[in-house]
Amino acid sequence: MIALQSLLTLSAVLFVIGVCGFITRRNVLIMFMSVELMLNAANLAMLAFARHNASMDPQVVAMFVMALAAAEVAVGLAIIVAVFRRRGTVNIDDLRNLKW
Amino acid sequence: MIELCQNDILSWVLFLPLAFAALLAVLPGSAKTLLCWTAFAASVVVFAVSLSLWCGFIPGEAGMQFTIHKPWIEQWGVSYHLGIDGISLLLILLTTFLTPVVILSTWSGVKKNIKGFLILLLVLETGMLGAFMALDLVLFYFFWEVMLIPMYLLIGVWGHERRIYAAIKFVLYTMVGSLLMLVAFLYLFWIGKESLGYFTTDLLQLYRVAVPYHAQFWLFASFALAFAIKVPMFPFHTWLPDAHVEAPAAGSVILAGILLKMGTYGFIRFAMPLFPAASQAFTPVILTLAVIGIIYGALVAMVQPDLKKLVAYSSVSHLGFVMLGLYTLTSTGVTGGVYQMLNHGISTGALFLICGILYERRHTRLIDQFGGLSSRMPLLAVFFLLATLSSIGLPGLNGFVGEFLILIGTYGSAHPGYVFFAATGVILSAVYMLWMFRRVMFGPLDNPQNRKIADLSFREVMVLLPVTVMMFWMGLFPGMFLSRITPSVEKFIDQYNRKLELVQSVETVKSPLEHRVVFGPRGGSER
Amino acid sequence: MTGFPSISWNLLLPQIVLLSTALFLLLLAVIYRGGGRSRGATVAGAVFSLLGLGVAAFMALAQYDTVADTFGAMLRLDPFSTFFTLLIIGGAALCVLLSVREAGGLKAMAGEYYALLIFSVLGMVVMVTAADLLVIFIGLETMSLAVYILVGIGGERENGAEGSLKYFLIGAFASAFLIYGIALLLGTTGTTRLDGIASGLNLAEGGSLQLVAVALVLIGFLFKIAAVPFHMWAPDAYEGAPTPITAFMAVAVKASAFAVLLRVLNVSLLPLADYWLPVMWTLAVLTMTVGNLAAIFQGNIKRMLAYSSIAHAGYLLVALASIDPAAAGVGNDPAMASVLFYLTVYTLMNVGAFGVLIYLGGGGRQMETLEQIKGTGFRYPLLGVAMTVFMFSLAGIPPTGGFLGKFYVFSAAVNRGLISLAIIGVLNSAASAYYYIRVTVQMYMRQSDEQLPGLPFSLPLAAAVLLALYGVFQLGIAPSDLLTAADRAVLFLR
C-alpha cells in the first residue's frame, strides 16, 4: 500500500515537470505534450484520492478528464498541422507575426 | 402657454437645444444657409424661453426656484433634480445669450462641415445649461462630462494648426481632474449615507451632512483640483492657452465665456458649501494662487506676440479675480466675484469674437502683423476699444463693477492684504490691453496686406452689437443683476458659516469613519 | 450519488435548443450543394443560428423566475444563471449579425462556422448554470475547443492559425491548472459541488493543500478572463481571429468566465475571502494598468481593443475585490451587481466598436490600423458618430452606459473603503481616454491619403451597430431595469 503522500508528491512532480516543460521548450509539440503531462498528473492525484478516500467520484472525474484530453488532442493537433502547413515550422519562436 | 409649462420650464430650456440639434441632424448637410438660419433661430428661441426664467424669477428669494425633482435611477438614490438661484440664473442667461451670438459669428468662419459644427454647439449648450441647473451630484457630473465631448471635437476638428495636440490636452487635463472628483463624489455619498441613514446624491440633502474634517480635507482637495483645472487657476492653467489658441473663434468664445465659469461655479455651488472647514483651511493657498494667477496672467499676457494667447492669459488673470472675490467670503466680494464671472463672459467673449473676425480676414493672430487698422476698420475699432475698456474695467462699463466690488470685498475681508496685489493686477491689465490695442489698431499701416482689409459686415456688427450693449447695460445698471445675485450669495455665506461651526463642534468627537478608510489591499475580516 | 438522478428536462430547454441548432447547422454543408461555401449557405447559417439563439433566449426568459436544481444538483437554474444565459445569447446573436458578411469571405464552411459558434455558446450556458466544478470544467472546455478553432478558421488568413495556436496552447495550459486544482479540491473536500466545497474547506487540517488547490482553480479562471499576468494570449488571439470572433471572445467568453468566477468565489470560496480579496485587489491594479499602458502603444485597432478588454477585465476585478463577505445573506452586494451591469454594457459597446470596424472594412479596403481609418469620420458620418459614441462609452464618459458601469464599480469599491483602488481605477480610466479618443482623432481630425471608397450597405451589420448604439444610450440614461435585474440575480449567489 503506497501512502497518499507519496502518490501526491509524484503527481506534483509530474505537474511541475509539465509546467517547466511548457515554459522552457520551444517546440509546440513538446509544449503540448507537457500539457498532457499536467493533465495526467491531475488524473494521478485523483486516483490517489479515490483510493485513499475509498470513493468512486474521483475515478469518474478522471474518466472525464481523459475524454476531454482526447478532444483537446484532436483540436490541438489539427491546429498545429494547420500552422505547420502555412508556416513550415512548429517552433514557437518563429511564430512571431503577432507581437506587441 | 408659459403658465402651462411653468413647472418644468427648466427642462424646456435644458433640452430645447438638444432637440434643435436633432432637427439639424436630419437637415441636408449641403444646405448651408438653411442650416445656419435654423441653428441661429433655434438658439434665439432658447434665449427667448430662458428670458421667461428672468421674468418669473423672484428676486428677493434666496433659495432654489423653478425646481424639478423626479426620480431617475432610484436604486442609487439619483434624481433628476433641477433648480436655479440668483447665481445660476445669470450664468444660464449668459449661456443662452452667448450661444446665438456665437452661432451668428461662425457663418463665414467655418468652412467645412458646418452642420456638425452647429450640432455640436447646440449639444454643448445643453451640457452647459445642465451643469448650471443640476442639483444632484450625479446629474451634475453627467452634464459636466457631456460638455467635454463637443468642446473636444470643436477644437480638434475645426481648430488651427496644433489643434489635435490642444484637443487631447484639453480632454486629458479635464478628465484627470473630474475623475478624481468622481471618487470624491462616491466617498461623499458614502459619508452621507452614514450620516443621513440613506443613500442620496442630492446636493441639497448633502448640504446638511457635516462631513468630518479629516474627510473634508481630501474631498475638498479633489473637488478643488477638478474645478481649479477648469477655472483655470495657476498652476493648472497650461491647457488653456493651447485650447484657446487652437480652437476656432466660436470655440474660444464659448470656452472663455462659459466653460471657465464652470470652475468658479463649481467652487461656489459644490466645493465651498459642502466642505467649508477644509475650504477655510485651504483659503490661504487658494488666495495666494488666485493672486499669482492675477499677476502671472497679466505679465505673461503682456509679452504674448499672439493676439489670442494674450486674451487667453488675460482670462487667467481675470478668473484669478473671481476666485479672490469668492474667497473673501464677504457679501460684497462674493457678489463681485459672481458679477465678474458674467463680465468676463461678455468682454472676453467680445475680444475673442474680434480675434476671430481679424483672423478670418488676415489668417494670422500675430499682433505685429497688424497695425494701423483703425483707419481701415473704423467700426471694428469702436467695438474693439469698448471691449478692451470693458476688460480693463473702465467705470461705466461692466468690468468696473465686478472688479470694484471684489476689491472692496477683499479689503473688508479677513485678508485685506491681497488688495494690494489685486490692484496691481488691475493696473497691469490696463497696460497690456491698451498696449495690445495700440499695436493692432493704431500706428502706421505698414503691412501692405492690411491695406485692403474690409470693415465689419452687417452680420458682424449684429454679432458685436448685443455684446456691446450688454457691456453698457451691466455697467450702468448693475442693480438689476445684483439684486438677484446678492440674496443667493448671502444665503451661501450664511450656510457656509453655519456649517463651519457645525463641523467644528462635531470635530470634538472622533469620527468613526477615520478607521474605515483603508489604503491598500485588505482582507474581508476587518468589519 | 445513489440511483439515477432525476432530470427535469424542461429546465434544460435552452441548452437543448442550442445543441439541436448546432447539430442542425453542421448539416448545412450537406443541404447546400455549393459545399456550404455559397452565399446562400452563409445567410442560411446566420438565419438558423439567430433562430436557435432566439428560441433559446425565449426559453431562458420563460424560466426567468425559476430557481431549481437538476441533474443531481449538478446544474442550477436561478436568476443569476438566467441573467448570464440571456447576456451570452444576446452577445452571441449580435456577433452572428457581425459575421454574416465576414463568414462569406473566410472560405470556410458556413455550417461549421456557425455550428462552432453555437457549440461554444452551449458550453458557456452550461458553465453559467453549473453548480459543480466538474460541469464548469466541461462547459469551459466545450466553449474553449470551439473558440480555438474559430480563431483560426479560414486557413487563408494571414495570422489566424498563429493566433489560434497560441490561444490553444495557453488555454490548454490553463485548463491543466484548473483540473489539477479540481483534483486537489475533490480529494481534500470530498466533493466538486460548489456548495459542498464551501463546507468542506477546513484550513485547520491539511489547509495548505486546499489553498494550493484554490489557487490553481483561480489561476485557471484568471487565464480565461485574461487577467494580468495571465493575459499574454489575448492580444495575439484577438488580432489573429476574424473580427466577429474577436468580438465574440471579448464579449461572451469574458462574460461567462466572470459569471463562473463570481459564482465560485461567492458560493464555494467565501470562507477564504480573506485570502482572495487582497489577491483580487492586486490583480485588478495590475490588469488595469498593464492593459491600459499596452493599449496606448497599439497601432492596430483590434489589438488595441484586445488590450482595452484586458483593462476592462481589470475594472471588473475592482468589483470582485470589493465583494463584502459580511453581506452574505443580508442583502445584495453592489459589488456583485456591478459586475453584471458592467458586463452588459461592455458587451454592447464592444460589439458596437467591432461592428463599426467590420463595416468600415466592407469597401474592399482593410480598416484595421489607426493609419487606415484616417478621415473616415466625415466620409461615413453615421459610422463615425457610432464609433465616437462607443469609444466615449469605453472611456467611461456620459451619457453612455460605460460611464454608469464605471460609476457603479468604483462606487462599490468606495463603499468598501477601497479608496486607493478607486483612485487607481479612475486614473487608469483617464489614461484609457487617451487611446480611445485617438480613434476619433484619426477618424475626424486627419485626412485620408487616398480616396475612400463607398461602403456597400449591410443590413445585419447595421442592425447590430444600431442595437448596440441604442443599448449603450439606454443603459447610460435609463439603467433602472437592468439594475433591478442585476440586483435580483446576485441575491441567488449565496
List the helices and strands and how they pair.
The complex is a heterotrimer of chains A (100), B (527) and C (494).
Chain A (H helix, E strand, L loop, with lengths): L3 H21 L3 H26 L3 H31 L13
Helix pairs in contact in A: 1-2, 2-3
Chain B lengths: L8 H18 L5 H25 L8 E9 L4 E7 L1 H24 L4 H20 L3 H10 L1 H11 L4 H34 L6 H4 L6 H18 L8 H8 L2 H26 L1 H27 L4 H20 L4 H32 L10 H4 L1 H15 L5 H15 L5 H24 L16 H19 L1 H29 L21
Chain C lengths: L12 H14 L1 H4 L7 H24 L5 E3 L4 E3 L1 H27 L4 H20 L3 H20 L7 H30 L4 H7 L6 H18 L8 H8 L2 H26 L4 H24 L4 H21 L12 H27 L15 H4 L1 H15 L5 H15 L3 H27 L13 H19 L2 H12 L3
Antiparallel strand pairs in C: 1-2
Helix pairs in contact in C: 1-3, 1-5, 3-4, 3-5, 4-5, 4-11, 4-14, 4-19, 4-20, 5-6, 5-11, 6-7, 6-11, 7-8, 7-9, 7-10, 8-11, 9-11, 10-11, 10-13, 11-13, 11-14, 12-13, 12-18, 13-14, 13-17, 13-18, 14-16, 14-17, 14-19, 14-20, 16-18, 16-19, 17-18, 17-19
Q: In percent, how helical is the residue content of chain C?
A: over 70%
* Count of alpha and pi helical runs of chain C: 20
Q: How many beta strands in the DSSP annotation of chain C? A: 2
Give the number of helices of chain B. Answer: 20
Instruction: Name the biggest interface.
Output: B-C, 44 and 49 residues
Shape of chain C: globular
